[in-house]
Amino acid sequence: MANKCCCNGRSRYFDKFDEILSKYEGKEADLIPILQNIQDAYGYLPQDILDELCNRTGLHPSQVMGVATFYSQFRLKPTGENLIKLCFGTACHVNGAEKVAEALADELKIEIGGTTEDGRFTLETVACLGCCSLAPVMMIGDETYGRLTPDKARKIIRGFYKNWGE
Amino acid sequence: MNNLRNDYYKIVVGLGSCGIAAGANKVYDTFKGIIEKSDVPVTLDETGCMGMCYKEVLVEVINPDGKSVIYGEVTPEKANKIFESHIVEGRPVVEWIVKADDMETSEDSFFSKQMRIVLRRCGVINPESIDEAIAMDAYKAIEKAVKTMTPEQVIEEVLNSGLRGRGGAGFPTGMKWKFARSSEGSTKYIVCNADEGDPGAFMDRSVLEGDPHSVIEGMMIAGYAIGAEEGYIYVRAEYPLAIKRLKIAIKDAEERGFLGKNIFGTDFSFKIKIKEGAGAFVCGEETALLASIEGKRGMPRIRPPFPAVKGLWEKPTNINNVETYANVPYIILHGAAEYAKYGTEKSRGTKVFALAGKIAKGGLVEVPMGIPLREIIYDIGGGTSSGKKFKAVQMGGPSGGCIPAELIDTIIDYDSVNQTGAIMGSGGMIVMDEDNCMIDIARFFLTFTQKESCGKCTFCRIGTKRMLEILERITKGEGKEGDIELLEELSMNIKKNSLCGLGQTAPNPVLTTIKYFRHEYEAHIRDKKCPAKQCKALIEYKILEDKCTGCTACSRVCPVKAISGEVKKVHKIDSSICTRCGACKATCRFGAIIVE
Questions:
Q1: Does residue B160 sit in helix, strand or coil?
Q2: B 80-109 residues with CB below 8 A of A?
Q3: B280 vs A94: CB contact, 8 Å cut-off?
Q4: Which residue of B lies nearest to A36 if distances are taken between CA atoms?
Q5: Closest CA relative to residue A73, chosen from A104, A114, A38
Q6: CB B586 to CB A71 under 8 A?
Q7: Out of A33, A99, A132, closest to residue B582 by CB
Q8: How far is residue B230's CA from residue B453's CA, in Å, rounded to a whole number?
């Protein structure tokens, strides 16, 4: 989103996309890596970039959207400033991840998958973060928080807001 | 201190994903800072997963005489003390040691029943140093193969070793290679399935992070055996550290001439590319994985033709998983007979398990096949983390099942595990205690498979949805007579009418819990009770009048203000407001809050 408001308008917005596309032949086998690169650069898969991808490569929109919606890594909407990845792996589940999820959803006043009104947080669940001995676990940005309880999870969120002075 | 001046201590910090999550980078940086300021000469290094996830952050100190000790639960503060006491003063901090060459520790049982073949270099070498890998025999097996063995002899050796696919189904690896070798065509491919998707399984990630060279070498040997010159590693995008270390390992191997043209001066050439997955569990299925590499939606197709005949871009392709390939160099280097010494008649060698859930000592363990489940849970894992009664262990993830406590003497090999209704799977082992509701576990896995079904087969797409709805109803106390039978009927149809392993095995968690915990289903349906006291609609939180001191802690922590009462007087929970979040029970110091 922020990319779009740069003063030079359209052309600068597509710069990053042009650079990505120049690295690939644009064949079907490149589609997943191209989409991964777009998401890295833009934070999500913006519709206008996907349209441009179809125009430039000749890949059919049904192909591109088919792949973009099939794989859970891809998102078609931007996230909040901080992405909370709450682990819903088996080890976390048996150690009470669902209660942590409820506490987070309640604290942030959003549903799982949603973004807070102030745009600060997006709450997502993931299949397994792979640090099962710290279960239940969540990641906010690159930081991992382990051995969570509903109460501890709430306090972590409050800590963020406190730091921001809100 | 004088006698230390010429000798070197070595400090090695475990920087696997789980270590990093526990704060290993901060510990590493602390040591780095101390060493820079100190005039004591010390080398600082990193390694992958050492296996004792429950004691992360792990730090190994290797003394000048080569003897080592491992410290557990190290923090930046403890790092300072370890440096000061152990390195500077020569006095190890005994109370923090979890493993040592020269002394017994309370944690020794974690290692004594393990046998490390796949993990031979994991947690020992720096995974980003090809020299350390070479010093421990990396690329010697491929050298032996291309210089002294024919491809047929390599396949024969793998067949004789009895190695079976470690991805789950357990198909004999040598057989798979034989098919791919005999397929017509000049272009063939090797694919490594590193799309480890079972929630609660992290074996392959640990191998890739801890010893990427073992997988690369295994793929090369497979390439030589079947006549392929190109390999792909399909790895989950959720494993950034594994991808990074693989990239480094591939680059280093290319620079040393292990990968590339005319390897070891022979006609054999091989290159490897990495393909990052994009988050689809079904891509662990081989035909779906191939579709994904080709840039398509990862949907399985009918087999035959098997990938060995028509695989990637319609060419003969051999697919094995990470752990399978990591076994291969050992087999070639030490011989099939040496490998086949371990295990049972039909399941040779070792198996790596990710031991997690309610287990006291969770981590990455490698055991010889044939070990009784009891020894893994109690001798290695130390029993339940809660100290409560062990109830069941879930093996095989969403495709597997629950093995109940009464079958704890089951031995771990493909056939014995299959007999219980679970499967060996890729190696996730989740321990549950008496507080875990088995219907809730079945519902958990069904939620997963239902979401991950690619949608191609009607029974998998819609059948799992219907099963999930029934399970949700049961956990909400709205179960009806006949629900169990309906679940069983749906299960049979989904198994029969699904194309791939995902659908064919999706009902397993439900079927095994019905088989061993039918009484729990009945309690939910008939008596509207959850014996494990987990299902929210079927439980109530209550305050015991004789134990409540009126400290107000519970009412302050309650997020919905369902608890009322005056200071120093008995409190009360309003069940109509209570959301059963359990915060009050976790807070109460007097054991005054119970669940009924």
A1: helix
A2: none
A3: no
A4: B278
A5: A38
A6: no
A7: A99
A8: 30
Residue A7 has pLDDT above 70, yes or no: no
Cα(B224)–Cα(B138) distance, rounded to whole angstroms? 16
pLDDT of residue A1: 44
| Domains (range + CATH), chain B | 2-107 (3.40.30.10), 130-340 (3.40.50.11540), 350-433 (3.10.20.600), 438-525 (1.20.1440.230), 540-595 (3.30.70.20)
CA atoms of B361 and B221, how far apart (whole Å): 36
Two tokens at B86? 């152990």
Nearest CA in chain A to B56: A133
Indicate the burial class of B334 (C-beta count within 10 angstroms; 0-12, 13-18, 19 or more): middle
What CA–CA distance (Å, rounded) separates A160 from B327?
46
Is A131's CB within 8 Å of B18's CB? Answer: yes
Show the tokens assigned to B520. 């729990």
Contact B141, B332 (CB under 8 A): yes
Domain boundaries defined on chain A: 12-70, 82-163
Checking if the pLDDT of B5 tops 50, the result is no
Q: Which chain B residue is nearest to residue A74, measuring alpha carbons?
A: B278
- Cβ pairs bridging A and B (under 8 Å): 146
SS3 (DSSP) at B449: helix
Per CB-CB distance under 8 Å, the chain A contacts of B278 are: 32, 35-36, 71-74
> β-strands B363-368, B563-564: how paired?
unpaired
- Cα distances (Å, whole numbers) of residue B40 to B75, B328, B365: 21, 42, 36
Domain A82-163 has CATH 3.40.50.360: no
Q: Give me the long-range contacts of B80-89 (CB less than 8 A, separation at least 24).
A: B80/B30, B80/B34, B83/B11, B83/B31, B83/B34, B83/B35, B83/B38, B86/B9, B86/B61, B87/B4, B87/B9, B87/B11, B87/B40, B87/B42, B87/B61, B88/B1, B88/B4, B88/B38, B88/B40, B89/B1
Burial of B187 (0-12, 13-18, 19+ CB in 10 A): middle
Give ipTM to 2 decimals: 0.89
pLDDT digits (tens, 9 = 90+) for B409-456: 999 999 999 999 999 988 999 999 999 999 999 999 999 999 999 999
Question: Does the domain at residues A12-70 carry the CATH identifier 1.10.10?
Answer: yes
Q: With an 8 Å Cβ cutoff, are B559 and A103 in contact?
A: yes
- DSSP tag of B407: G
